[in-house]
């Protein structure tokens, strides 16, 4: 990945005082190529790398940090800035706030509409979805199915083929029924065409939405940028939603679109499930483009799902070197709650790409669980008493082999050893005691 390449490019530089022009020129080439590989528009990649070059020149290299790492840091900072620096929230002013969803057919508008409704509902907002795709008979049904999943009401009119009217009626309906946010899902076509542009512009003029969000498929590369440009010229949208970032896309579209239309990206969509929606954080996307993996999202997702109380309890036990198989089992349960394991694995730096084509077996935990559940209460609480004959019994009871039981015991004991060592370091008088 890009960070490795940078590190390699700078290996020879180690020990020198600063980043010099010659070194930079070579690295810049690598960076530019990597950006283009990540779907960044060539012109944008050139602008970015020129800026990075200026920034990198003459920066002092700390002795402890390798120049390659410093370069990665500079590239990361520049990319973050270019994508807007800070995250930008959607605006929900007005009663009701009206959010208009625009984009090509298949870009993920309807899916995003459901996700956004879900997201806002979780903030205790009273949300209404207006189904304004009047061309495909199945469109309204699709909206209804998603809305039902997330528990949000839909406004639709079966006989009316005028999306402008439906949108207006939906807003009136929202006012009468105390809805605070109306999300208007619209029709798209397979390519940019005049009829679609006219329709979305008419809807926008008629309802004056609080926010107009342009939804675009990140997998479409350069087309994504051109589509964004055309839509923006016509309807001057307020923000961008980048979809299908769960696929192979490396997120380069985020950088290009931002650079070309100068509008903030507000959400990213990472799957077909209603929960697969994230706010757009420029620094994380910069990391993704750099190929470092979206570690922070991973941690956050884990935190959301972990039962905090339980986590605290287990932490206490780890601190006291009392971690046992009951705690281990409880942690497995927590990990399973985190949802689609493949989703999570794909976010781990380095691992993500390598695991892309590997089927991850969600049943991999099953034998481990079976083994632990075949232990007696006493054995789980005091793993040290699990002798050879007990292991035999456990293997039989759980339908596994003695090797599997031994492996688990070894892993478990290694884990405990590591925890003990950590405790020594972070405990009173330990080298890392300040980090606690
Ligand atoms: P629309 O025509 O713009 O309303 O697009 P839809 O919302 O109907 O989505 C088109 C297809 O893309 C559907 O099969 C969705 O399930 C799928 N889809 C939408 N968003 C995502 C996403 O973030 N990731 C993936 N993998 N699929 C998505
Ligand atoms: Mg749709």
How would you portray this structure in words?
The protein is α/β, with parallel strands linked by helices and 436 residues long. The chain has 3 domains: 2-82, Four Helix Bundle (Hemerythrin (Met), subunit A); 97-292, 3-Layer(aba) Sandwich (Rossmann fold); 300-435, 434 Repressor (Amino-terminal Domain). Helices cover 55% and strands 10% of the residues. The protein has helices at residues 2-9, 21-37, 42-56, 67-82, 109-121, 137-150, 163-176, 194-207, 222-235, 252-261, 282-290, 295-305, 308-319, 325-337, 341-345, 351-354, 366-373, 377-381, 388-398, 402-426; strands at 97-103, 127-132, 153-155, 181-186, 211-217, 239-243, 265-269, 277-279. An 8-stranded mixed sheet has the order 3-2-4-1-5-6-7-8, sandwiched between helices. The protein starts with a helix and ends in a 10-residue tail after the last helix.
Summary tags:
436 residues; Four Helix Bundle (Hemerythrin (Met), subunit A); Rossmann fold; 434 Repressor (Amino-terminal Domain); binds guanosine-5'-diphosphate; binds magnesium ion
**CA-CA gap between termini:** 33 Å
How much helix, percentage-wise, in residues? 40-55%
Per DSSP, what share of the residues sits in E-state strands of 2 or more residues?
A: 5-15%
Overall average residue pLDDT = 82
Largest sheet: 8 strands, mixed
Overall CATH architecture of the largest domain:
3-Layer(aba) Sandwich
N-to-C SSE string, H for helix and E for strand: HHHHEHEHEHEHEHEHEEHHHHHHHHHH
Shape: globular
Q: Give Rg in angstroms.
A: 26 Å
CATH class of the largest domain: Alpha Beta
Bound ligands, each once: guanosine-5'-diphosphate, magnesium ion
Helix tally?
A: 20
- Order of strands, widest sheet: 3-2-4-1-5-6-7-8
Uncertain stretches? 12-17, 61-66, 349-356
Oligomer: single chain
CATH superfamily membership of the largest domain: P-loop containing nucleotide triphosphate hydrolases
Q: Strand pairing plus helix content: what structural class? A: alpha/beta
* CATH topology tier name of the largest domain: Rossmann fold
Structural domain count: 3
Keywords: Cytoplasm, GTP-binding, Hydrolase, Nucleotide-binding, Ribonucleoprotein, RNA-binding, Signal recognition particle
GO molecular function, one term: 7S RNA binding
Pfam families: SRP54 (PF00448), SRP54_N (PF02881), SRP_SPB (PF02978)
Organism: Adhaeribacter rhizoryzae
């Amino acid at each position: 990945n890009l960070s490795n390449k940078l590190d390699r490019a700078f290996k020879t530089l180690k020990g020198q005082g600063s980043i010099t022009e010659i070194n930079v020129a070579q690295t810049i080439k690598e960076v530019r190529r990597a950006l283009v590989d990540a779907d960044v528009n060539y012109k944008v990649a050139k602008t970015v790398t020129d800026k990075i070059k200026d920034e990198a020149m003459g920066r002092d290299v700390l002795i402890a940090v390798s120049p390659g790492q410093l370069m990665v840091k500079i590239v990361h900072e520049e990319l973050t800035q270019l994508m807007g620096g800070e995250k930008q929230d959607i605006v929900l002013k007005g009663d009701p706030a009206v959010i208009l969803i625009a984009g090509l057919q298949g870009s993920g508008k309807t899916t995003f509409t459901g996700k956004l409704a879900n997201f806002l509902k979780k903030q205790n907002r009273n949300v209404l979805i207006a189904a304004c795709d009047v061309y495909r008979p199945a469109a309204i049904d699709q909206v209804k199915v998603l809305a039902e999943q997330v528990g949000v009401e839909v406004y639709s009119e079966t006989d009316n083929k005028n999306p402008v009217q439906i949108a207006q009626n939906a807003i009136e309906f929202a006012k009468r029924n105390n809805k605070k946010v109306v999300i208007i899902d619209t029709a798209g076509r397979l390519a940019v065409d005049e009829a679609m542009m006219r329709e979305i512009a008419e809807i926008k003029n008629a309802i004056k939405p609080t926010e107009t969000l342009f939804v675009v498929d990140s997998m479409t590369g350069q087309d994504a940028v051109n589509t964004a440009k055309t839509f923006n010229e016509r309807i001057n949208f307020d923000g961008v939603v980048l979809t299908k970032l769960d696929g192979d896309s490396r997120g380069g579209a985020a950088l290009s679109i931002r650079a070309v239309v100068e509008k903030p990206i507000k959400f990213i969509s990472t799957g077909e499930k209603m929960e697969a929606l994230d706010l757009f954080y420029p620094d994380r996307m910069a990391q993704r483009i750099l190929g470092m993996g979206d570690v922070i999202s991973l941690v956050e997702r884990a935190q959301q799902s972990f039962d905090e109380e339980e986590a605290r309890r287990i932490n206490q036990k780890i601190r006291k070197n009392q971690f046992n198989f009951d705690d281990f089992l409880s942690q497995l349960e927590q990990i399973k709650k985190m949802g689609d394991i493949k989703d999570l694995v794909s976010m781990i730096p380095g691992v993500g790409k390598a695991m892309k084509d590997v089927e991850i077996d969600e049943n991999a935990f099953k034998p481990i669980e079976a083994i632990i559940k075949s232990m007696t209460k006493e054995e789980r609480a005091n793993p040290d008493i699990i002798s050879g004959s007990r292991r035999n019994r456990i293997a039989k009871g759980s339908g596994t082999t003695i090797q599997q039981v031994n492996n688990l015991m070894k892993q478990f004991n290694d884990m405990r050893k590591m925890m003990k060592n950590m405790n020594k370091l972070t405990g009173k008088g330990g080298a890392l005691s300040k980090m606690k």
